[in-house]
Write a structure and sequence with these properties.
The chain is α+β, with helices and mostly antiparallel strands. The protein is built from 3 helices and 3 strands. A 3-stranded antiparallel sheet has the order 1-3-2.
C-alpha cells in the first residue's frame, strides 16, 4: 500500500491491477458495470482506497465460500 503521507492507504490503477491480478481493461470493465468501486481522480491519476480493494476481495471469497455443490 502507498506510503504517501498526502494520500495514505491508496492504490494507483497499476497497484490495484497487480494486487488483484487484473488487466487495466478488466478493472475498467468492472467499474463500468458497477462491480467494482469507481476511482477517485487526483489530477489525471486514478486512486482507490485500500479498504475498498480489501472489501471487494473479501466479498469474492464470501461468494465462493457460500457455494454449495449440486446433488
Amino acid at each position: 500500500y502507498r506510503d504517501n503521507p498526502i494520500y495514505p492507504n491508496t492504490l494507483s490503477k497499476a497497484e490495484v491491477c497487480a494486487a488483484l491480478g487484473l488487466s487495466p481493461r478488466t478493472l475498467e470493465t468492472l467499474v463500468r458495470r458497477g462491480r467494482f468501486a469507481p476511482p477517485v481522480f487526483l489530477g489525471k491519476r486514478a486512486y482507490w482506497s485500500a479498504a475498498v480493494v480489501e472489501r471487494w476481495t473479501r466479498e469474492q471469497f464470501t461468494a465462493q465460500e457460500a457455494w454449495q455443490p449440486h446433488n
